[in-house]
């Protein structure tokens, strides 16, 4: 690169900032692919060895699939990951997260491909062993695969908050919301790809083949991140104080006392609460949506799962569009409120005994996809307007951590509510769906308070992101 080019701030060059976005987004897309690559194979994993499976019972598969967040939630690694990001910087944290993802994926692949599913270890598992009075046998293969998945989960979640800070670094003053929307869309595409390739690969080769493909893609993603490292160095060279990350200025460095400033920020807590309520009314709902389609809308069991699956695909297109609107027009708080209002109305219609036809359920799910695009497209780009750059990694980590707690507890509560409203094997979804609607109402309230606070604190949430 010429001296004249390097004297210009690299992030002001559209070619460089969009290249950086594509590189880190591909890395994250590979991570999401490997996260969900085994999900379409659940029935094949549970099949006996004579039928080409591993003979995992549902409880073993539950342990394996739930292992992703164990270290993050119970050992607070996601929280510490945010501190590491703010303290050590993007390059160090990004490299660390990529290495953890690859190491975890290797362990996971080794367990599935080379370990025998015969050996078992007896351990007491909450909600299983403690209620039967017996220790529960977990296959050694499952335990090792779960360990690998948990290590991978640490790397993947830390990579997520690191990429959020990467985009803020490169796109502040430019198309930040659009960039975040595209990154989310590519992540959703990574998940969608698993439904297209996992089963064919497993049937044509072996059960471990989709995982090997994911591992190879993840290694490519890690190598791309190393390429990004070079770009990040050049960005810092082009503007040593870019985005308030100067290495030499002590007042621009993260200190543990900055956590107190985050905790004292009312805008941060409103965003966090809104995130908790909104996502709590989306992802837990999807876990029960298939049953809703069967019992309320009379959809055939083989087709019932297809209707809820329509929602994520719509976000691939709509999230970047709404992000672009936020960049050019602003109205971030308004977009979040509108999405939350739409979410609430949808759950109210799901609760009411009206228009119980499959076509109406499809319309509601499509509208849910619109709501699911509106709120995230404005929420995530709004955080850098409320939190200073040097505290941003910790802020995102705390939001993600609290969100994960909600996504763990809310399905448990909703499962109990549905069970209590089931009579003669037929669930009544009135109370459960109204419970989701209450979460939507709470999100609306938090959004309205945030909008009022924005006018007082000057967060500029209603102003456009593009400043030049």
Task: Report on this structure.
This protein is an all-alpha fold. Helices cover 74% and strands 3% of the residues. The protein has 20 helices and four strands. Helix 17 (332-351) packs antiparallel against helix 20. The radius of gyration is 23 Å and the shape is globular.
Concise synopsis of the structure shown:
Helix content is 74%, strand content 3%.
Radius of gyration: 23 Å
> Taking strands numbered 1, 2, ... along the chain, how are they ordered across the largest sheet?
1-2
Structural class: mainly alpha
The profile of the biggest β sheet is:
2 strands, antiparallel
Helix content: over 70%
Question: Between the first and last Cα atoms, what is the distance in angstroms?
Answer: 25 Å
Question: How does the overall form come out from the CA principal axes?
Answer: globular
- The overall pLDDT average reads 83
SSE order, as H and E? HHHHHHHEHEHHHHHHHHHHHEEH
Q: Give the number of DSSP strands.
A: 4
The poorly predicted ranges are: 1-7, 127-135, 242-251
**Beta-strand percentage?**
under 5%
Topology:
Elements: H1 3-6, H2 14-36, H3 42-46, H4 58-66, H5 70-74, H6 77-88, H7 90-114, E1 120-123, H8 129-132, E2 136-139, H9 140-171, H10 176-204, H11 209-238, H12 258-263, H13 266-280, H14 283-295, H15 301-304, H16 306-329, H17 332-351, H18 358-386, H19 392-420, E3 422-423, E4 426-427, H20 430-457
Helix pairs in contact: 2-9, 2-10, 2-11, 4-9, 6-7, 6-9, 6-19, 7-9, 7-11, 9-19, 10-16, 10-18, 13-18, 13-19, 13-20, 14-19, 16-18, 17-18, 17-20
């Amino acid at each position: 690169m010429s001296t004249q080019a390097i004297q210009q701030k690299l992030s002001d060059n559209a070619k460089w900032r969009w290249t950086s976005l594509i590189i880190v987004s591909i890395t994250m897309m590979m991570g999401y692919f490997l996260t969900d690559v085994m999900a379409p194979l659940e029935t094949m994993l549970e099949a006996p060895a004579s039928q080409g499976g591993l003979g995992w019972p549902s409880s073993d598969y539950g342990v394996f699939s739930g292992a992703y967040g164990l270290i993050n939630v119970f050992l607070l690694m996601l929280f510490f990951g945010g501190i590491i990001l703010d303290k050590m910087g993007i390059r160090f944290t990004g490299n660390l997260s990529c290495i953890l993802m690859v190491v975890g994926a290797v362990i996971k692949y080794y367990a599935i491909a080379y370990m025998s599913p015969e050996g078992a270890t007896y351990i007491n598992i909450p909600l299983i062993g403690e209620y039967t009075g017996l220790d529960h046998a977990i296959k050694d293969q499952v335990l090792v695969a779960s360990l690998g998945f948990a290590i991978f989960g640490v790397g993947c979640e830390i990579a997520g908050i690191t990429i959020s800070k990467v985009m803020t670094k490169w796109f502040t003053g430019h198309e930040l919301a659009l960039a975040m929307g595209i990154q989310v869309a590519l992540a959703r595409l990574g998940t969608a790809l698993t439904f297209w390739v996992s089963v064919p690969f497993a049937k044509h080769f072996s059960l471990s083949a989709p995982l090997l493909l994911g591992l190879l893609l993840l290694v490519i993603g890690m190598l791309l991140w190393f390429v990004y490292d070079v770009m990040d160095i050049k960005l810092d060279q082009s503007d040593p104080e870019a985005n308030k990350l100067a290495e030499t200025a002590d007042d621009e460095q993260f200190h543990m006392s900055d956590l107190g400033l985050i905790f004292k920020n009312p805008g941060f807590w409103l965003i966090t609460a809104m995130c908790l309520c909104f996502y709590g009314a989306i992802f837990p709902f999807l876990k029960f949506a298939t049953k809703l389609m069967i019992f309320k809308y009379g959809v055939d069991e083989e087709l019932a799962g297809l209707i809820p699956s329509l929602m994520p695909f719509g976000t691939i297109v709509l999230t970047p569009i709404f992000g672009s609107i936020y960049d050019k027009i602003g109205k971030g708080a308004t977009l979040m409120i509108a999405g939350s209002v739409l979410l609430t109305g949808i759950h109210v219609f799901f609760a009411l005994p009206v228009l119980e036809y499959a076509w109406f359920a499809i319309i509601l799910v499509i509208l849910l996809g619109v709501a699911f695009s509106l709120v995230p497209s404005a929420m995530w780009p709004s955080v850098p307007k409320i939190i200073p750059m040097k505290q941003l990694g910790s802020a995102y980590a705390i939001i993600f951590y609290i969100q994960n707690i909600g996504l763990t507890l809310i399905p448990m509560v909703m499962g109990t509510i549905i069970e209590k409203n089931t009579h003669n094997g037929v669930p009544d979804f009135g109370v459960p769906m109204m419970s989701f609607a209450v979460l939507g109402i709470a999100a609306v309230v938090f959004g309205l308070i945030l909008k009022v606070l924005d006018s007082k604190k000057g967060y500029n949430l209603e102003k456009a992101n593009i400043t030049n």
